[in-house]
Amino acid sequence: MVSVSVTDVEKSYRQGDVTVSALSGITISVEKGEFMALAGPSGSGKTTLLNMIGGLDLPDRGEIIVDGRNFRQMKSGDLADLRLRRIGFVFQAYNLIPVLTAEENVEYILRLQGVEKAKRKKRVRAILEEVGLSGMLDRKPSELSGGQQQRVAVARAIVSNPAIVLADEPTANLDSKNGEKLLELMKTMNREKAVTFIFSTHDAMVMEHARRIVHIRDGCVADDQRKES
Amino acid sequence: MYTQLAWRNIWRNPRRTLIILTAIFIGVASMIFLASLMRGMMEGMVDNAIDNLTGHIRIRHPDFRNDPSVENRIPDPDSLIKEIKPLLPGGARIVERILVDGVINTSRENAGVIMVGIEPEKEKNCSFIGDAPLEGQFFSDDDKNGIVIGRALLEKLGTRINRKVVLMSQRADGEIASRAFRIRGVYRSQMSDTEKTFVFVPLHTARKMLMLGEDATEIGITLPGDRMADTDLSPLTESLSERLTDRVVVVEDWRQMLPAMNAYLEMFDAFLYIWYLVVFVAMGFGIVNTVLMAVYERMREFGLLKALGMRPIRIFWMVLRETLFLLAVGMGMGNLVALVGIHLLSGTGIDLTAFAKGVEMWGISRVILPVVTAGDFLTANLTVLILGLVVGIYPAIKAARFTPVETMRHV
User: Fold this and answer.
1) Are residues B311 and A80, on separate chains, in Cβ contact within 8 Å?
2) Model pLDDT for residues B83-92, shown as the tens digit of each residue
3) B87, B240 contact by CB (below 8 A)
4) Are residues B43 and B74 in the same domain?
């Protein structure tokens, strides 16, 4: 079953007086439950593609369908709802809300979804236990290490049982040991919860964990490798 | 959680928050405190004017205002009083007076004065002379030649208590009357002009001296209750006028007698609103600046919230809620400080004796007591709250309009 369908997508940006093409007619199809890496050097278009799939930006041309919904036919409010309920994000810089505790950061998504308090608390505690942070519920991001913060970000991304988790260079700010741990956690979540993971990276060690690697170069798919499981 | 988040957000930068809270609290406190002083000053002016033999309502001959002589007097005032008494509220006090221009002489000096014939006991709680601080004593009801003059006039005449003075004025038959009086007492008043102008003699002596029989030049009415500055007396004045249509008299309330004071009162609220606005403009810039800085510092976070699926309207309300917290805390502190200040000054007031000459010119009391009304209190707070939220809309809209992609690029 196709989870994400990107067809002939083009996107260019203005940088001063120059127009830079970020994506040049890219086409990818991602099946449900895949654990896929978007690989490529800086400026190849990985982050732009992830933003498009996440509905954070719209293509100049082409079509994106996520979880059966065509972005072209959706209003901005509906896109926001889709992100809230069906897509999880993990960012390179953790991007947690600094004034909220680990528990509150994860709970915030459920609060936005209107989940009632008792259910929220139960789910948040369970997910934080799964990512190994059960003893750190009351800690603010500034009181957590980089690896712990990124675990909270993963917990926040998957707490609402999304169809896809998009992770933009999730291990870039972590040392290799913590990076490894995070990838193991993501793989576990992918396996146990059947959540589709798409993450960007240019780190060979990270690529090794992916079951599918799509190489992007100059805004186009240069190579699409699938590993036998 | 939104409320909790907004509260924590305003304390991310405690120093900046404390600075803007101080600005709001000083603004609100000064709005309420200065409004209370201004209102106290204004009510003091009204009280002084009413006390200054004006009363709340006065009945006189229609021509007396333009020609204040004994020819323009009220005949048979006792029957007039009986006629109007049923129309007045319980506790209203009615006095008869004779007011005429005159000249007071000692062996060396003389001065133009207004001679006022009164019944001292009835003047209590009716006019300043009934309760004025007195050196010596008041004349008794059977005193035939006692006079009470003001401290400033006493000094001007270079005389003292128990000395003789001679009063001259026009009689009812047009001839000049003169009569010797002995100074029984010297009064003090809020204003030295009053002390120089009014001299008081027994009503029966004034009548006899001016050959007025039982007549009076005016009937003064003092109504029970405080805060006459806000009371509309025109319905009562009209009903008294209707009752007295068969008499040659005019009934006026203090607003009609003191049109300049009335005009000032009507402008007072406008002055107050202008004052509120001026304070708020200064405060408003601070609020916008603070909230806008906080918003730009958290650009990435707003982008993140949008990326996570938070709708712009929710971001708008979250930022506006932060402004609301700033306003609420600042207003709470401001109200508290203003009320404590007003409470501390309510007993002693602010003594302006050092500026006595200046303040007297405007009829302002030497001591200003703050007067706080629920209306002023509410207006100051609502001004800050509503305008504060209005200026908070701009940063809230800014925050709501950030796009995730643009903010993620922002470092």
Assistant:
1) yes
2) 898 988 888 8
3) yes
4) no
Identity of the residue in A91, A99, A107 whose CB atom sits nearest the CB atom of B12: A99
Residues 304-323 of B with CB under 8 A from A: 304-311, 314
Range of the domain at B105: 55-254
The residue among B254, B284, B300 that closes a domain is B254
Rounded to whole angstroms, the Cα distance separating A144 from A136 reads 8
**Predicted pLDDT at B409:** 65
User: Both B312 and B267 in a single domain?
Assistant: yes
- Give B146-188 pLDDT, tens digit per residue: 999 999 999 999 999 999 999 999 988 888 999 999 999 999 8
Give the number of domains in chain B.
2
Q: Is the pLDDT confidence value at B312 over 60?
A: yes
Domain boundary among B203, B232, B254: B254
> Which of B189, B174, B237 has its CA nearest to residue B363?
B189
Give the separation between CA B254 and CA B261, rounded to whole angstroms.
9
Note the helical H segments in B227-311.
234-243, 254-257, 259-297, 299-307
Contact A108 B1 (CB under 8 A): yes
Same domain, B69 and B181: yes
Same domain, B395 and B267: yes
Q: Hey, are the CB atoms on B1 and A104 less than 8 Å from each other?
A: yes
Same domain? B195 vs B291: no
> Could you say which of A54, A97, A108 has the minimum Cβ distance to residue B307?
A54
